[in-house]
Amino acid sequence: MWGFVESFDDCTNALINGQQTRLLGLGIWKERKQWPFEWLTSSPNIKVLGIVFCPTVKENRQLKTIAMNLSQLQTKVRRSLWKASNRRLTVLQKV
Questions:
Q1: Arithmetic mean of pLDDT over the chain
Q2: How much is the average pLDDT of 70-76?
Q3: Per-residue pLDDT for 77 more than 80?
Q4: How many CA atoms lie within 13 A of 54 on its CB side?
């Protein structure tokens, strides 16, 4: 497995930062405790480009991945609407 990471480093001329890199187990690896790389830590969910990813879509009959993203989106929309509601603009300023 380490050979794969070294090949990636050589091809892309990039190094994997162990302090910022997180592992997310998918499928049968979702509850895995031991990983091939001791210097990487696993995480119950990760955020990539503003989207939260979880190991499973459904958990306890709830859509976990979708629910987490939806709640964050609702919070952002509420904040934006609240900020916009405090602005008092004239007709000329609105155009």
A1: 77
A2: 88
A3: yes
A4: 12
Number of CB atoms found within 10 A of residue 41's CB: 12
Beta strands in 1-95, from DSSP E residues, in sequence order: 22-23, 41-42, 46-48, 51-53, 58-59, 62-63
Q: What does the alpha-carbon distance between residue 13 and residue 70 come to, in Å, rounded to a whole number? A: 37
In sequence order, the 6+-apart residues with CB closer than 8 A to the CB of 57 are 63, 64, 65, 66
pLDDT confidence of 89, banded at 50, 70, 90?
Answer: confident
CB 37 within 8 A of CB 55: no
Retrieve residue 35's tokens.
């990983």
Is residue 79 within 8 Å of 95, Cβ to Cβ? no
pTM over 0.90: no
